[in-house]
Design a protein that fits this description.
Blueprint: E1 7-11, H1 18-25, E2 30-34, H2 42-45, H3 51-59, E3 63-66, H4 69-83, E4 91-92, E5 103-107, H5 114-121, H6 124-137
Parallel strand pairs: 1-2, 2-3, 3-5
Antiparallel strand pairs: 4-5
């Protein structure tokens, strides 16, 4: 149809099952999945109660992206040890477990725009706020942490 969706990108671990649900509903839909979190080693992942279902959910995607090659390798090892599928450097190979299709794997490091940070830090507003904080806290050292409000981030242990 004219307004038909042709591709969907799914982001992060709470939606690991979504690629499978999307592919079941629309088999020709291109589905990408990007994991913004660490993918644990197989020694840790194997104790998860729904480990097989989560892996099947992910490998239903056409491509899966990870922050680095280490997380990609952990994912490959889990697919091989837990699902029995073969992986090479850049794909989960086609098998019965993958409904006969290959899933591409990619390590995609996300870069930071340090020029933008520098520009913001040297702006008139930022310099004024920095001076306010210096006056407020005197010579004391201030430590700042920025985290998402998620239980798995271990926030209670950081205080």
């Amino acid at each position: 149809e004219e307004h038909d969706i042709h591709s969907v990108w799914v982001h992060d671990y709470p939606l690991m099952m979504l690629p499978l649900f999307l592919k079941k509903a629309k088999p020709h839909l291109f589905v990408g999945f990007f994991l913004h979190s660490v993918f644990p080693s197989s020694e840790i992942y194997r104790i998860f109660p729904f480990r097989q279902e989560l892996l099947r959910g992910c490998i239903a995607a056409d491509i899966i992206g990870f922050f680095n090659f280490q997380f990609l390798r952990h994912f490959q090892t889990c697919c091989t040890r837990i699902l029995g599928v073969q992986c090479n450097r850049s794909i989960v190979e086609a098998s019965k477990e993958t409904q006969g299709k290959e899933t591409k794997l990619a390590a995609i490091p996300i870069g930071e725009d340090f020029e933008l940070y520098d520009k913001c830090l040297n702006s008139e507003n930022a310099l004024g706020r920095i001076e306010e904080l210096r006056q407020k806290f005197g010579g004391r050292r201030v430590v700042l942490g920025v985290d998402m409000m998620e239980e798995r981030k271990g926030l209670p242990h950081k205080f």
